[in-house]
Amino acid sequence: MIKTLAILILAISASSPAAERIVATYSIVAYDPETKELGVAVQSKFIAVGAVVPWAKAGVGAIATQALANTNHGPEALTRLSKGEKPSDVVLTLAEADAGRSRRQLGIVSATGESASYTGKECSSWAGGCNGPNYACQGNILAGEAVVKAMQTSFLESKGELGARLLAALQAGQDAGGDSRGMQSAALLIVREGWGYSGLNDRYRDLRVDDHAEPIKELNRVYALHRAIFPRPEH
User: Fold this and answer.
1) How far apart are CA 203 and CA 189, in angstroms?
2) Are 45 and 213 in contact (CB under 8 A)?
3) Are 193 and 36 contacting, i.e. CB atoms less than 8 angstroms apart?
4) What is the pLDDT of residue 200?
5) Rounded (10°) angle between helices 215-229 and 162-175
6) Is residue 14 part of a domain?
7) What pTM does this model have?
8) In the sheet where 185-191 sits, what is the strand order?
9) Closest to 148 measured CA to CA, from 118, 164, 170, 168
10) I need a surface site. Which of 17, 64, 184, 221 has the fewest CB within 10 A?
11) Following DSSP, what letter does each residue of 197-219 receive, concatenated?
């Protein structure tokens, strides 16, 4: 009886909204100044991470909102970027107005290549980020700082299409230890004006692996299929 009760309590705790909101993950947001693509790539031990973390709008910017994710930060940040605010100012403004800022994490890159990464003081260790022109990497509950540093190095040293570079950065982060809890889901979102389906929107690649033992590997497979069917319009 006691054992059964304990199992029920654990099951209820694991399925509670508070438990599900912790998007412990690592991500990269980036901008390609040559093609004008903006993108987000993310991996997490969290089901369907692509439904929470990535936000992007062509000609404006790309956002990753994670940890105790505030999904309002995605559209709010894009609105502020569209008005000309710098990413560094956007993260500060959003944090100041957010009572839960100590447990939030944000990565932002604008359509001018400016970037910022924010990590609240109470995000679970290891948590942090790094950023530079055209990119920002961030993560929480990671194996260590080496994860975001590996992503940074991969992005800076890689060539080719933005999607391939973002996925390579995810793999580099995983090779460095990734999410300390393991893997479950991954997503890639890339936008560019007029590059969406039939040229009718900006959602060029919106790919998700919601639950898989090797989500990055599976996302690469799906990306290759999508790329074969929908090559870059300029090609």
Assistant:
1) 8
2) no
3) yes
4) 93
5) 170
6) no
7) 0.90
8) 128-132, 135-139, 25-32, 37-44, 185-191, 203-209
9) 170
10) 17
11) GGGSSSEEEEEEE-S-SSHHHHH
d(CA 230, CA 190): 13
Question: Residue 111, SS3?
Answer: coil
DSSP element (H, E) containing 14? helix 2-15
Query: How many folded domains does the chain comprise?
Result: 1
Amino acid at 110: S
**Looking at residue 87, which CATH number applies to its domain?**
3.60.20.10
Q: Tokens in use for 19?
A: 């438990």
Residue 1 lies in a domain: no
Q: Which structural domain, as residue segments, surrounds residue 76?
A: 21-229
In the chain, the amino acid numbered 29 is: V
Q: What is the pLDDT of residue 211?
A: 98
Whole-angstrom distance, CA of residue 28 vs CA of residue 98: 23
Q: Residue 48 is encoded by which pair of tokens?
A: 């369907």
DSSP string, 158-169: --S-HHHHHHHH
Token duo for residue 65: 């909102």
Residues of the chain with pLDDT under 70: 1-22, 235
DSSP single-letter state for residue 100: T
> Is the Cα dihedral 34, 37, 38, 39 positive or negative?
negative
Assess if residue 15 is contained within a domain.
Answer: no
85-95 pLDDT, tens digit per residue, is 999 999 999 99
Nearest to 192 by CA among 175, 173, 206: 206
Please report where in the chains the tokens 């001018």 appear, as a residue.
112
Structural domain contains residue 2: no
Q: Which amino acid is at 111?
A: A
Note the pLDDT of residue 1: 46
